[in-house]
Amino acid sequence: MYKSFSMELAGRTLTVEVGRVAKQANGAALMHYGDTVVLATATASDKPRDGIDFFPLSVEYEEKLYAVGKIPGGFNKREGKASENSILTSRVIDRPMRPLFPKDYRNDVTLDNIVMSVDQDCSPELTAMIGSAIATSISDIPFDGPCSSTQVGLVDGELVINPTQAQKQASDMALTVASTREKVIMIEAGANEVAEDVMIQAIFKAHEVNQEIIKFIDTIVAECGKTKHEYTSCAVPEELFAAIKEIVTPEEMEVAVFTDEKQIREENIRNITKKLEEAFAEKEEWLAVLSEAIYQYQKKTVRKMILKDHKRPDGRAMNQIRHLAAEIDLLPRVHGSAMFTRGQTQILNICTLAPLSESQRLDGIDDMETSKRYMHHYNFPSFSVGETRPSRGPGRREIGHGALAERALVPVLPSEVEFPYAIRTVSETMESNGSTSQASICSSSMSLMAAGVPIKSAVAGISCGLVTGDTDDDYVVLTDIQGLEDFFGDMDFKVGGTHKGITAIQMDIKIHGLTRPIIEEAIRTTREARLYILDEIMAKAIAEPRKEVGKYAPKIDQISIDPQKIGDVVGKQGKVINKIIEETGVKIDISDDGSVSVCGTDQAMIDRAKQIIKSIVTDIEAGQIFTGKVVRIMNFGAFVELAPNKDGMIHISKLSDKRVAKVEDVVNIGDMVTVKVMEVDKMGRINLSMKPGDLTAKAEEPKEAKEETVTE
């Protein structure tokens, strides 16, 4: 049965249509927010696949370019693999939804969101987040929802709910918060060094709005919701737990996991697993769930040690950071490099500089960002965790980690005018045992400074964890969680920032939300750790950006020309600019406003290219001095190329102060000579002189014969 529901959300109408399309999905909602339209569906398999020992949730966010009136680029003219924005949006939908499914549920579930129409003032990403929650809530799939998401901007110091495109461009913050009825369940943020108290205020303003949306969802579920279906529980039998504890006592398990050496702990668990497999060799039904039982046993042991005994597996205090180290210039030929180590987590970051023409072009549904000049990429090879697997390119996790570090560093980058380079940093994971994304922020910050990128401030990142008990006030916040604490804990709260404030947040949790005291403590804890890393570790490796780029990095000089003369520099079919590039070996980028970037590794050739461009755009007048190439010789004199398509003639009598019998006695074709413009006649012919006396005679040089039309 078709039904439609509407509410006002941040001054725009949100409409949900149920029963109009996609009726064979377990749940479907056709979402309208302004003129943005997203189809959100939730579908589950009838039963689990054989051998599945985890919850197989897939979240898709599909950007259709017809939604913004575009035909896809490329040869096939259809959408290809998911864009980076699609992947990141899928992850943001996944993170609040996943904890709300039953922990013992093993049926395949797919949440699919198809963006069909885009109103740039009404975020399709936000519409999909709410749509996924509605589609799942009204379906027969077991789900402890609903949940809701809200975006917050900060414009002129004021918090703005679900900002429009214009407000996003002016905003100092891009915050997304997801909530259940009582608690915050997900935070994702990028910010221009926003103070911690402002961030907390924004988070809970979004939480309030989420409560209004959840009430709206409740009305939809009341009218359209299906009865949740029964499923086969994959919970471990209690009798198996009891049998395991008779063979491996809690004290033995505590000894097995109580170490900061990941390899030792894994070897201990392998030995325990082997002992239990031998003990239960004749109980096939127990062997099928033994790995899950051992996992649960480890989890209970670690959580009890932390929450009740206040002991961490590696012996650290609750607010203690692992051993830290930082160094730069590990790789001699790259433009910048730095390595940051935190315990068994180690990231080597490499910075590469290039002309702005190397910026990444984006082909998507967002009109705000069509290109980006800073790219951060994160790689996670299998050797970093002591495993073996083939490399198949970056997965969603790698793309997400790279984007998080990129978001943390963008606010401190210099403008294109200050630093006209495209910048790429690559984080190579050398070793991983928790929070590699935050180590990437630290190493990237140092790598940029080592490369001579004049960033406004160093940025550091740190993660904290959480273990909760039976009540809201029974919890422990852990600074700098290692892999085991992340694996068995309830939260991974990542915060990047400077001395001044926060530049990025990403919060993942495995429980049904966080209270305000936990969030406030997490933000305070990460600030204290971040400042320690900035002052005591990173600043001792490199305190500020180098004044110049390295000798192997390209040098870029900028000049400005009259935009009306861009065509003269480019020439017909690019012949002029290509000739300059061929002669000097530089790269030249010209913007519509007349900004010209000249890039090369040889400063002399950069200067030569600039000189040629200046000569092209500067009107030639008597008194000006040029250095040009002799291109033709006649009996009566020599022709010198002052600029492409601009030749002047030196009469034989003007080649020297002495009498010249033959032109070739003084110059030959290809010679570079310095000449002075003596006259530009009525027909535009340029008469030159090489006489030393003429070159040094300043009295004849008109005042306007300067390069004031060209500024560097």
From TrEMBL:
The keyword Magnesium applies. Residues 693-712 are annotated as: Disordered. One of its GO terms (molecular function) is RNA binding. SUPFAM superfamilies: Eukaryotic type KH-domain (KH-domain type I), Nucleic acid-binding proteins, Ribonuclease PH domain 2-like, Ribosomal protein S5 domain 2-like. Mg(2+) binds at D486, D492. It comes from the Bacteria. It is found in: Cytoplasm. Residues 623-691 form the S1 motif domain. InterPro entries: ExoRNase_PH_dom1, ExoRNase_PH_dom2, ExoRNase_PH_dom2_sf, KH_dom, KH_dom_type_1, KH_dom_type_1_sf, KIX_dom, NA-bd_OB-fold. Residues 223-302 form the KIX domain. It catalyses: RNA(n+1) + phosphate = RNA(n) + a ribonucleoside 5'-diphosphate. Residues 697-712 have a biased composition (Basic and acidic residues). Its EC number is 2.7.7.8. One of its GO terms (cellular component) is cytosol. One of its GO terms (biological process) is RNA processing. CDD domains: KH-I_PNPase, RNase_PH_PNPase_1, RNase_PH_PNPase_2, S1_PNPase. Its cofactor is Mg(2+). Keywords: Cytoplasm, Magnesium, Metal-binding, Nucleotidyltransferase, RNA-binding, Transferase. It holds the Pfam family RNase_PH. HAMAP family: PNPase. Involved in mRNA degradation. Catalyzes the phosphorolysis of single-stranded polyribonucleotides processively in the 3'- to 5'-direction. Belongs to the polyribonucleotide nucleotidyltransferase family. PANTHER family: POLYRIBONUCLEOTIDE NUCLEOTIDYLTRANSFERASE (PTHR11252), POLYRIBONUCLEOTIDE NUCLEOTIDYLTRANSFERASE 1, MITOCHONDRIAL (PTHR11252:SF0). This is Polyribonucleotide nucleotidyltransferase. The lineage of its organism: Bacteria, Bacillati, Bacillota, Clostridia, Lachnospirales. The gene is pnp.
